[in-house]
Design brief:
By secondary structure, the chain is of the alpha/beta class. 38% of the residues lie in helices and 13% in strands. The chain has 14 helices and 11 strands. α4 crosses α10 and α5 crosses α6.
Length: 485
Amino acid sequence: MELGYWLGRGVEAFQEWARTYGEFAAHSATAVDEAACEVAFGELTARLRGSYPFFHPCYAGQMLKPPHPVAVAGYAAAMLVNSNNHALDGGPATSAMEEEVVEQLAVMAGFAVHLGHLTSSGTQANLEALFVARESRPGTGVAVSAEAHYTHARMCHLLGVPVFTVPVDARGRMDVGELDRLLSAGAVGTVVVTTGTTALGAVDPLHRIVPLARRYGVRVHADAAYGGFFRLLADEKAGGEIDDEADGEADGEQSPVAPETGAALRAIAQCDSVAIDPHKHGLQPYGCGAVLFGDPDVARFFRHDSPYTYFTSHRPHLGEISLECSRSGAAAAALWLTLKLLPLTPGGLGAVLAAGRRAAVRWAELISASPYLEPYQPPELDIVTYYPATPGSSPPRLSRVGVASKEVMHRGMNAKEDPVFLSVARVTAGGFTARHAGAVADGDDTHVLRSVLMKPESEPYLERLHQRVEQLAKESLPASRGCGR
């Protein structure tokens, strides 16, 4: 799509609507000098060139990519109105759009009934879920995995709720046996399960955790901020059974995720709450998260009064079921327009995720066959972890792995020609040796390379990306600096 054209259409539509209310004089206090604006805007665009190229497939680092042009056009068109979705007083049109997109997210999650709304971030979505968990199970703590996002510990500290950390297995997923032992002590009221950890993209075995938690009367919250949209790729294989112990890849024509991963993602429907971030795989600009609850009655925990809002309609206002007040209605409009054109189906938005997933699987294969790179663990979603290979047949030393990984990252991002942008993740010595038994643990932790292939453009670019990273890894070998093998 031609973004400039649709941005212009949005401005024209706003101006046409504005004229229906009659002419009025603009105030001189808001006037700006055109020449000064030219200079300032030129400085702005020049400074923005100091950003990393999140739009390009050579950027394979953090969970970053630009929003879809459709979302940009929708956001800009609604931003001119600048509605506030806290109350229908501030955003009657965009509040209705928010209700519609939240309904679509709930259907994707598998909720038969729901209460939910958009949020300004995944952190805020998780905070609201943990707030409801505290109110629902007062006096109890929250269990999170050792690989869960750090926001949960921070939010629990904010809420005054104790946190219990559950060890993970050799793939970075919550250890169900350890969770069972923890729940049996009776101090935990809520389990936070991550479907797509930030470092590894690991998916906790939610389909096993939910029945375990129910046995102990414990709530389950799914932090699906990153992996939630992969639910679109998690339909059961026709005529087949899910093997809960399977770790292999599923039939690519029927399901781009492994059977156990698919089973875990489908189990989101059985959770008490879920947080999901449309500003990640939902192609939205930042400022668009979402929280959903499976029991609409949790609205009682949000109930409050306001002497100056909620007067224009007897319909429920979004602010009455939210901890946030002011929220951009433009975020709802952008998501609404995006889902009109890329719906929440396997062939709609799911095709975008499938491209990144295929790229991750393919790159893992190339890394496994490379003499210069080693896989850290197989990708479960679209995050690939790996490290520079050890020269010769000697076992990897954690100190060397960390130095080489960071060197590859820095060499790549600072290259004057053909730069490539990667990231690193810190992993424990125990985590590394659990995956690579022969490694020499000469430190408490190390760093491995980490690439997030969330842009579908990564798929056709993959061979070039691999060759460039392989070249950087080769250059990081001691032999390339005259030190021998």
